[in-house]
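To the structural biology subgroup,

Please find below the input and predicted structure for RNA signal recognition particle, which we are adding to the shared reference set this quarter. The sequence is reproduced verbatim from the submission form. If anyone notices a discrepancy with their own records, reply to this email rather than editing the shared folder directly, so we keep one authoritative version.
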Amino acid sequence: MSYVEGFVVAVPAANKEAYRKHAEQASQLFKELGATRFVECWGDDVPEGKITDFRGAVNAKDDEVVVFSWLEYPSKEIRDAANQKMMSDPRMKAMAEEMPFDGKRMIFGGFVPIVDV
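Predicted structure (tokenized):
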């Protein structure tokens, strides 16, 4: 089984194309470092919940869209090594300086698949 790293972030709607370009650039780095799949999904039907929801999780503002993303790696070890390498990669540092969203409100985590149909 693979290992999955998921992200949720709020992106200003006006920054959709800038975000897409940013994600495309990041995908190349993630794949170079071991990711086998990189998926970015622009929110289309993200309802408000009664207790919690995606928008609340990232403190999305009225002019922001929730983006749900995930990466697949062959293993947790490869994902951990990729994240370590990214922290010192100058390309990642350059991308971090020009993020088209507020990275402080991004949520993320690593997940072990238990069903994959």
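Summary notes: The chain has a mean pLDDT of 95. The CA atoms of residues 37 and 72 lie 5 Å apart.

Regards,
Lab coordination
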